[in-house]
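#help-structures

NK: newbie question. if I give both the sequence and a SMILES, will the prediction place the ligand too? trying with flavin mononucleotide
OV: yes, paste both and it writes out the complex. here, I ran yours:
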Amino acid sequence: MTMQWSPMLVIRPEAGSARLEDSELRVAETVSAATLAEQIASGSAVIGSLVTSEPGQSNPVRADWVSKGWRPSLEYFDWSEGDWSEVDGEELAEELVTETTTPGWRWGKLVGITPASERTVGEVLIHRRTVRSYDPKGLDQAAFARILHDFVVLLGGTTDSGGFRAGLKSAAIVYGIDGLTPGVWNLDLRNEVAALARPAELRQAMSDLMCGMQAAKTASATLVLIADFPVRQRRFPYERALRELYIEVGRIAQWLILASEAHGAGCLITPATNDKVLCDMLGLPPREAPIYTITLGPRKPARAGAGES
Ligand SMILES: Cc1cc2nc3c(=O)[nH]c(=O)nc-3n(C[C@H](O)[C@H](O)[C@H](O)COP(=O)(O)O)c2cc1C
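OV: that's the protein plus ligand as structure tokens.
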């Protein structure tokens, strides 16, 4: 009989052995490579000590989640009920940092917050509205760098209480920024360094994966906030942690919206993306997943007599 492997089964090859993990069954064990090879070759219903299920018996919701690229968040939830009292938070504390091993380009440090207008934060907040269509002139490199710089300044001015930003990183999908190659850029916000990961024209692909939302067609860029789930898991191994991650990412997005608005740019925030496609586009390893997107571009000039759009 053909057996069906659990959608949560992970086999990690090691020297002469393999590590088997199934977060749904809450099993993690090491088996010898010879035993594993024998079990697989004989079509055994047992892999290591795990009993595979017959077709139709495994949970279809889980299989669906895995096919959508949500495996890491599902594993996070599965493994999150353990004893977490011995976790060393300090060791893992880190902020929104991307590993850019080969920084190919530096946007440069720009001094201080440089609001484009005299508007107060309160006025910016009151007039902020989601913007889904942008001025075709686009942002230039210096304006985008100013927005990111001010975003980092604003983030830095807020306490990361509890280290909630651990394991978060970001990438920018650039569509049309004067002076920048369109494509996927990995960002190291702390050092203000961006590394071009993949040159590509991605307006249509992004519009498609954002459930048909049209913002990417005229936007300058989309910033993607990404979670490294194993880092989150070690830092926050409790059940409420997944919810905290979503809330924290939302809070971070608010700072980018503020920085954008201060420089005359509008934003569309949404987590409504086809995550599997976005993972592939960003070249993320299986341990990481996108959580939130902020699409931005210059606001169109206000028409005489028209309100904010
Ligand atoms: C959790 C979340 C999910 C969203 N999903 C979608 C979506 O599926 N489609 C869409 O057009 N906008 C989506 N948005 C954007 C909201 O529709 C947008 O914030 C809304 O237009 C509110 O307008 P305002 O920001 O001007 O108040 C989403 C926003 C959030 C926070």
